[in-house]
Specification:
The structure holds 2 protein chains of 2 kinds. By secondary structure, chain A is an alpha+beta fold. Chain A has 9 helices and 7 strands. The chains are: A alpha+beta, B alpha/beta. At the A-B interface, α3, α4, α5 and α6 of A face α1 and α8 of B.
């Protein structure tokens, strides 16, 4: 039961009882006066009349008054509680991107206006701290690049030194490998924080998605070869999308690379592109351990690795799927992961097909 | 050949200078944009390495000034920001190459050399390293007398490596030229293709395709 209904019923109930009380008391007063005046007549008859009249008048007064109370109360409650509904709607809409939109205030200084004020200042503070985190990560990833450049350069210079002993040489090479990994992570983080801050611009153009999918299928076959995996291209409908070429290639490469890395021995990767009601639907299915149900919702989280015990076996920066998700969202598409544990995992990407492209497709 | 390095981070400037000197370049170093511009306009260089974020005058402005003055010295831009738009802006403003920080030193050296040679470069149509030959017109590759079956990508990779025999090709340069990627794909795709290519061309001795760990790949006759 909502607050509005509860308050209205209470309001109507109190109104009903008080009307009855007032009607009863005032009639009694009136009737007693009348009966004392006519004491000489038959008193028993008068006593009975008195009760009937009370009941009749009570009904006649109480029903309209209660109805009026119900309707008026409902209206009054709706009016005074409407800012609450507005706050609820606003809170529903809020995410880390639109924190700057504040709620309109009534300005009449009542409790709800105060609540709105507090709510607004809270989102402002949240926005400021989100902003600080974004700036911090952006600066951090930027600041990390200078020492990384220096370390890479110094190590490579050290590698050129003559009379370098073999173990020393090997140690430097290992450090260079780790440095490359660190560089990948920093590059991935820079991209994501820039994307968060809205600093990455996409160059959208009409693209034949089927050509890109075919190309990534070719790359996937080569990438899968050392693992002994089979890659199949199931369907590849002709679809044009309005998208950034480099980013879509990055997306496809990320997803196929993941499907290969997290696979079982002698497993398969199935790639498909379907055209469905104005959408391009890319599916990438792989065999393999799958993802436990409790982890499915977290696969897009930065640095999330499903199975802790497999961390060491798979190389990667832990940002691939986060980047993939950003690319899809930046193209107003959707990306979903579903998994049957110990069997398969399917990643589905939906992008809006470019209508100009489809018109051209239908030409004879 | 003379190279000017305009880089405010002193350590970075120092090891770039050292590496280029080791390769036989004569190197001048400048730590800010205005001095760099003055040096570049008053004496001739074969190539210029220009950091974008510089005190005094930023790299892009130095680049524009030079190009306005009809100075066509090949310029390689370095940047710690490393976003796609900056790269495009730089190339549009007249830069010849762009390398995001952190970079592999060997890759930088290879690119500078490519820039300095660019003017006199000939586009040979028949490339040869030992008994491996590649005809860029018919797109046929032979090891000895045996023809090699190559996919388009493998062919482009082989051609890219064979254009600079005996020189290191960095992963970034390969990704840019063979895949047309201007981003770090975060995968080992280059290594896997190299392995495939090696399985095809290095079936007989001597082995030609070499991995230079921490730097890149190279095609040459012997180690």
């Amino acid at each position: 039961m909502t607050i509005r209904t509860r308050l209205t019923l209470w309001y109507a109930g109190i109104l009903c009882v008080s009307t009855l009380l007032i009607a009863g008391l005032s009639y009694r007063e009136f009737a007693l006066e009348k009966s004392s005046a006519s004491k000489q007549f038959g008193s028993e008859e008068a006593e009975q009349d008195w009760w009937e009249d009370v009941v009749q008048i009570s009904i006649l007064c109480a029903i309209p008054a209660t109805l009026l109370g119900l309707i008026g109360g409902w209206w009054l409650m709706s009016k005074s509680l409407s800012p609450v509904a507005a706050i609820t709607e606003a809170a529903k809409r809020i995410n880390d991107r639109n924190l700057r939109e504040s709620l309109p205030r009534t300005g009449n200084g009542d409790e709800l206006d105060k609540l709105t004020e507090v709510f607004n200042s809270m989102t402002e503070r949240l926005d400021a701290s989100f902003q600080r985190i974004r700036e911090f990560t952006l600066h951090a990833s930027h600041e990390l690049k200078t020492p990384l450049t220096v370390m890479q350069g110094e190590l490579e210079t050290a590698l050129r030194e003559e009379n370098l002993s073999e173990p020393h040489h090997e140690r430097i090479l290992n450090q260079l490998d780790e440095l490359q990994r660190l560089t990948k992570i920093v590059n991935g983080l820079t991209l994501l924080t820039k994307a968060d801050a809205g600093q990455v611009q996409l160059k959208k153009e009409p693209l034949r998605l089927d050509e890109l999918v075919r190309e990534s299928y070719d790359d996937a076959r080569i990438l899968a070869h050392p693992h002994g995996l089979k890659v199949h291209l199931q369907d590849c409908d002709e679809v044009t999308v309005l998208a950034d070429r480099h980013r879509l290639r990055q997306l496809l490469l990320n997803l196929t690379d993941n499907a290969i890395k997290y696979n079982s021995a002698n497993g398969t990767v199935d790639i498909g592109l379907l055209r469905k009601n104005g959408h391009a639907e890319i599916t990438i299915r792989n065999s393999g351990a799958g993802i436990p149900p409790e982890s499915v919702s977290r696969v897009f989280d930065r640095f999330f690795r499903g199975d802790e015990s497999h961390n060491g076996e798979v190389d990667g920066c832990g940002l691939g799927l986060s980047i993939a998700q950003w690319i899809v969202v930046a193209h107003d598409g959707t990306i979903e992961v579903s998994s049957e544990p110990k069997k398969s995992t399917v990643v589905t990407v939906r992008l809006a097909a470019d209508s100009r492209g489809s018109l051209k497709d239908f030409q004879p | 050949m003379r190279v000017l390095v305009v880089e405010d981070e002193k350590k970075t400037a120092a090891f770039i200078g050292k590496a280029l000197q080791a390769e036989g370049f004569i190197v001048e170093i400048s730590h800010n944009g205005s001095d760099g511009l003055l040096l570049a306009t008053t004496s001739p260089f074969d190539a210029l390495i220009l950091d974008i974020m510089l005190p005094g005058r930023d790299g892009l402005s130095v680049l524009r000034q030079l190009r306005e003055k009809k100075n066509s010295t090949p310029i390689l831009l370095l940047s710690a920001r490393g976003d796609v738009n900056e790269r495009v802006d730089g190339l549009n403003a007249g830069a010849d190459d762009y390398l995001p920080k952190p970079f592999v030193l060997a890759e930088l050296v290879a690119r500078v050399r490519a820039l300095a040679r660019r003017s006199g470069e000939s586009r040979a149509t028949l490339l040869q390293v030992a008994d491996l030959t590649l005809d860029t017109i018919t797109r046929r590759a032979l090891r000895g007398s045996a023809p090699l079956e190559l996919t388009t990508r493998e062919y482009r990779l082989l051609e890219f490596l064979m254009r600079v025999p005996g020189r290191i090709c960095g992963r970034m340069a390969i990704l840019e030229n063979v895949w047309d990627y201007n981003f770090d794909p975060g995968t080992n795709i280059v290594d896997v293709y190299i392995r495939r290519l090696r399985e095809k061309i290095d079936t007989i001795e001597p082995k030609l395709l070499h991995t230079i760990r921490g730097a890149g790949y190279m095609i040459k006759e012997s180690r």
